[in-house]
């Protein structure tokens, strides 16, 4: 992940109890992906980036982290929000992870 102007590296985490993936810079949440699990499918329902941090690539970073985690769990992604669908358009090498 890319360092910020302050040299702080963003940190991605999975919060399964909240059904979300979170990207933080320091203690500040800068981007989130919410999801729901249905069997072997993970529906990514919402992506949000703090308006003060838009345009810095944080949404792409947290979606990539989430997709990697879903892949490691042997599940497939159902993109329910426009940004996740867009991310897969931009990363055609990952489309095998989309639910059929």
From TrEMBL:
<dbReference type="Pfam" id="PF14542">
    <property type="entry name" value="Acetyltransf_CG"/>
</dbReference>
<dbReference type="InterPro" id="IPR016181">
    <property type="entry name" value="Acyl_CoA_acyltransferase"/>
</dbReference>
<protein>
    <recommendedName>
        <fullName>N-acetyltransferase domain-containing protein</fullName>
    </recommendedName>
</protein>
<dbReference type="InterPro" id="IPR031165">
    <property type="entry name" value="GNAT_YJDJ"/>
</dbReference>
<dbReference type="InterPro" id="IPR045057">
    <property type="entry name" value="Gcn5-rel_NAT"/>
</dbReference>
<feature type="domain" description="N-acetyltransferase">
    <location>
        <begin position="13"/>
        <end position="99"/>
    </location>
</feature>
